[in-house]
């Protein structure tokens, strides 16, 4: 009996903890080969040890384009393709009100929650276009559908992430790529 994701190659960005880690474990259990990406190499190594030989780690800061390009290159070198990218990294800040928001914390939020997703998307699209298939999943937030008190910068970045997903789909759907 084959597993639902048998022999699929999935990059899980933000897999050192939370939903990203849970996604990596679940995808591996469903038969996928996992490339675990996050900034924290120790936690990635623990995850790879838990998953076993179907996983490799690639420490990556998604705000650094060269590190994201290395992530895609490493995946292609190791497995020959990229079927799925799950963008599960994200952050929020304790001082969330507009009154407390600084330019530095705004840039941190944009960099992690939105620019990193753009970097991953633009880096993986050439490989997915070449293979004429792929799936990019952006884990976002309920605040996209129902605004809450999660903070101005958080809501702006998650709304932007939704726009990135929808806009990307419009451009790549004819290439066999979904978001």
Strand and helix map with partners:
Elements: E1 9-13, H1 18-29, E2 33-37, H2 41-51, E3 55-57, H3 65-79, E4 84-87, H4 103-131, E5 134-138, H5 152-172, E6 177-178
Parallel strand pairs: 1-2, 1-4, 2-3, 4-5, 5-6
Helix pairs in contact: 3-4, 4-5
Structure write-up:
By secondary structure, the chain is α/β, with parallel strands linked by helices. It has one domain: 3-Layer(aba) Sandwich (Rossmann fold). It is 49% helix and 13% strand. It has a six-stranded parallel β-sheet, sandwiched between helices. Helix 3 packs parallel to helix 4 and helix 4 packs parallel to helix 5. The protein starts with 8 loop residues before the first strand and ends with a strand. The mean pLDDT is 92.
Number of domains: 1
Catalogue the unreliable spans: none
Order of helices and strands: EHEHEHEHEHE
Task: Name the assembly state.
Answer: single chain
Structural class: alpha/beta
Strand content: 5-15%
For the CA atoms, what is the radius of gyration?
Answer: 16 Å
Largest beta-sheet details: 6 strands, parallel
Overall average residue pLDDT: 92
Report how far the terminal alpha carbons are from each other: 28 Å
**Could you name the CATH class?**
Alpha Beta
CATH level-4 homologous superfamily: NAD(P)-binding Rossmann-like Domain
Helix count equals: 5
Number of strands: 6
Examine the coordinates and then state which fold CATH places here, giving the name of the CATH topology: Rossmann fold
* Largest sheet: spatial strand order: 3-2-1-4-5-6
Helix content: 40-55%
């Amino acid at each position: 009996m084959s597993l639902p994701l048998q022999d699929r190659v999935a990059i899980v960005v933000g897999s050192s903890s939370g939903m990203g880690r849970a996604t990596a474990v679940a995808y591996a259990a469903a038969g996928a080969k996992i490339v675990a990406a996050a900034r924290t190499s120790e936690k990635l190594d623990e995850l790879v040890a838990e998953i076993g030989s179907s996983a490799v780690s690639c420490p990556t800061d998604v705000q650094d384009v060269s590190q994201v390009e290395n992530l895609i290159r490493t995946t292609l070198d190791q497995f020959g393709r990229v079927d799925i990218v799950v963008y599960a990294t994200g952050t929020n800040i304790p001082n969330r009100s507009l009154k407390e928001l600084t330019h530095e914390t705004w840039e941190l939020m944009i960099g992690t929650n939105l620019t990193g997703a753009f970097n991953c998307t633009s880096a993986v699209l050439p490989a997915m276009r070449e293979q004429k298939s792929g799936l990019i999943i952006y884990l976002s937030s309920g605040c996209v559908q129902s605004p809450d008190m999660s903070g101005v910068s958080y809501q702006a970045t998650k709304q932007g992430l939704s726009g990135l997903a929808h806009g990307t789909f419009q451009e790549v759907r004819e290439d066999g790529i979904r978001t």
